[in-house]
């Protein structure tokens, strides 16, 4: 039996769909309201347990198996749906080497470390006097609501050389892990200090919503640089990560359009205004990898970059990369 068949055997389509759709039994099948189009009158969504398939007989006029259901629901491609359902079903997709497992465990630990750091920063934003200044900036200068600030997990990195470091060491992480996660900078003599100090922190997550690193903006106008990202790490790869993608992908699929803006705070502001199909690269330069990631969701990509000189250059560079990426389908 192939992995795909085994996953289909192990996952009950009625259980899976029931997590999203309230189903009622109708003979051999189950019926509910379609989760993929607006409807409250006629339940047009049917699940067929015998064949392990579903179909919307309403507006969508579309159907498929559990993979198609998860792809549509989450805005994922087949590979992502396969990985997700394989994990849920406890099916190994390929024999993993001990090295693979070790590496994955390490990554999981680094992600947990970054989640801890994000919570620490968030605590400082909401519950310390220094954080209050950052919170005021976000609410008054950026017009972000408390709800938005919480949704995007914004925080405040306290002003000190070892505040965050001591907190994370106290949580049981090692120096080596702090370096691998990009939370501290190592000096020539081997000693380390906090990378982010007196800055607003923006957690950066990968396409699946897992922590990858941070972007951080200055509060004191004399500090430099204005934006500081995590360094390149195993989890943080600027050339492939797109900020906001895990929140935007469903909207990108639905609206068949992706909008690229220049900065993290632009993404957040535009989301708050109700436009969710928006992402930004980590700096100004777009790469082919960014565009490939978006191209899996839509072929309509709109660049909405700042009309200053840097923005113009980035736009032109982005357009060239986009054309090349689109041609090489
Ligand atoms: Zn439908």
Give the tags:
DNA Primase, Chain A; 3 domains; 17% strand; 4-stranded antiparallel beta sheet; 5-stranded antiparallel beta sheet; globular; Dna Topoisomerase Vi A Subunit, Chain: A, domain 2
Could you characterize the architecture of this molecule?
By secondary structure, the chain is an alpha+beta fold. It folds into three domains: 3-89, Alpha-Beta Complex (DNA Primase, Chain A); 98-229, DNA primase, catalytic core, N-terminal domain (DNA primase DNAg catalytic core, N-terminal domain, Alpha-Beta Complex); 245-327, Dna Topoisomerase Vi A Subunit, Chain: A, domain 2, CATH 3.40.1360. It is built from 13 helices and 14 strands. Helix 3 (66-74) packs across helix 4 (78-89), helix 5 (98-127) packs across helix 6 and helix 12 (288-295) crosses helix 13. 33% of the residues are buried. The model has no long low-confidence stretch (mean pLDDT 90). It binds zinc ion. Zinc ion (ZN) binds at residues 34, 36-37, 56, 58-60. Zinc ion binds at residues 34, 36-37, 56, 58-60.
Task: Look at the structure and give the mean pLDDT.
Answer: 90
Radius of gyration: 22 Å
Taken from the alpha-carbon principal axes, the silhouette is: globular
| Domain tally | 3
Structural class: alpha+beta
CATH classification class of the largest domain:
Alpha Beta
Strand percentage: 15-25%
What do we call the CATH topology of the largest domain? DNA primase DNAg catalytic core, N-terminal domain
What is the CATH H-level superfamily of the largest domain? DNA primase, catalytic core, N-terminal domain
Q: Count the E strands.
A: 14
Unreliable segments (pLDDT under 50, ≥5 consecutive)?
none
Task: Provide the helix percentage.
Answer: 40-55%
Query: Under the CATH scheme, which architecture of the largest domain would be assigned?
Result: Alpha-Beta Complex
Distance between the termini: 32 Å
């Amino acid at each position: 039996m192939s992995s795909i068949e085994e996953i289909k055997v192990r996952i009950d389509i009625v259980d899976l769909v029931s997590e999203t759709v309230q189903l009622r039994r109708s003979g051999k099948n189950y019926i509910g309201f379609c989760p993929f189009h607006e409807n409250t009158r006629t339940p047009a969504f049917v699940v067929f347990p015998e064949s392990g398939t579903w179909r919307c007989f309403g507006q969508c006029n579309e159907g498929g198996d559990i993979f198609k259901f998860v792809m549509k629901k989450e805005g994922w491609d087949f590979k992502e749906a396969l990985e997700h359902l394989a994990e849920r079903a406890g099916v190994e997709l390929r024999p993993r080497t001990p090295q693979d497992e070790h590496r994955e465990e390490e990554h999981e630990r680094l992600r947990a470390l970054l989640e801890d750091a994000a919570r620490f920063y968030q605590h400082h934003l909401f519950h310390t006097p220094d954080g209050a200044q950052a919170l005021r900036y976000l609410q008054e200068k950026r017009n972000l609501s408390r709800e938005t600030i919480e949704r995007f997990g914004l925080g405040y990195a306290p002003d000190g050389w070892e505040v965050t470091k001591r907190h994370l060491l106290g949580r049981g992480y090692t120096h080596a892990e702090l370096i691998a996660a990009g939370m501290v900078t190592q000096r020539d003599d081997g000693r380390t200090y906090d990378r982010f100090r007196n800055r607003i922190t923006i957690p950066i997550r990968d396409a699946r919503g897992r922590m990858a690193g941070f972007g951080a903006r200055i509060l004191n106008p004399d500090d430099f640089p204005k934006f500081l990202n995590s360094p390149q790490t195993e989890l943080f790869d600027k050339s492939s990560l797109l900020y906001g993608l895990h929140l935007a992908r469903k909207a990108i699929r639905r609206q068949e359009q992706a909008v690229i803006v220049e900065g993290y705070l632009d993404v957040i502001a535009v989301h708050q205004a109700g436009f969710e199909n928006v992402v930004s690269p980590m700096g100004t330069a777009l790469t082919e990898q960014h565009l490939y990631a978006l191209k899996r969701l839509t072929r309509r990509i709109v660049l909405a970059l700042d009309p200053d000189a840097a923005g113009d250059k980035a736009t032109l560079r982005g357009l060239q990369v986009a054309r090349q990426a689109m041609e090489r389908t």
